[in-house]
Amino acid sequence: MSDSLSITYTEADTNLIPRGLALPDALTKAMGARDTAYDAYGDALIKYDDCLRQDYIKAAQERDAANTRAAVASGANPDDIPSEVERVTAQRGRAVGIVNGLADRVRQCDREIYRQWIEALPQVEGELTEAHSKAEDAYRRTEDAFRAARSNLTSIVNTLAYVSLLRRGVIRSQADAPVYMSSRDNDRVEHTRMWLDAVGVGDPDARVEMVRVYEGGNVRTVPKVTRAE
What we know:
Strand content: 5-15%
Structural class: mainly alpha
Largest sheet: 2 strands, antiparallel
Shape: elongated
Number of helices: 5
Number of strands: 2
C-alpha cells in the first residue's frame, strides 16, 4: 500500500445551489448527509494529524527525544517510555485509509447532491417563474405608489411655497409663485426642504430676493431660487 494520502478532498462548489430556494426533501436530505460526511472527514484529519502530516516521522522523533530526556532527568527508565515513532508508523496506514475513505464518502455525497439538484430543476424553475410574476406585480405596485407619493410631495411643496409667500406679500398671485424643480441626484425629502428654505418658506422675517424671469413670452417677478444643477 502506498504510504501517502490520495488527493486531498476539496469542498464542492458552494455556488451550485442558490440561497433562498424551497428545495425538495430529497435534495435537502442529500445536503444534510454531505454535511455529516464532511464533519466526519474534518474530525478524522484532526484526530490523525500526527500520523498524516508530511513530517510525521520527524515530529515523532522529536517527541521521543523530549520524552526520553524528561525520563532521564526524572530518574525513570527511558526504555519504559512508549515510542512515538513506532506508534505513528503503526497507525499511519490505518489513518490514511480512514481519511481517504471519508473523503471518498464526501465526494459521493457531492455527486448525489448534484444529481438531486438536476432532477429538481424543473420544479425549481416552475416555482421561480411564478415568483417572478409576483415580484413584477409587487414592483409595479410599489413603483406606482412611489410615483404617486412623489407627485403628492411636489404638489404640496409648491402649494406651501405659494401660500407662504402670498401671505407675506412676497408674491401677488399663484402665477408669481416659484415652482419646485426636482433633482435626481438628491434625496427628494431633503432637497424639497432645502428648496423651501431657499425661497424663504418657514421664516417670517426672511427677506426673499426677487428676480425678473422670462417665461412663455411673459416677464415675471419671482423669488430667486437656487436650484440643483
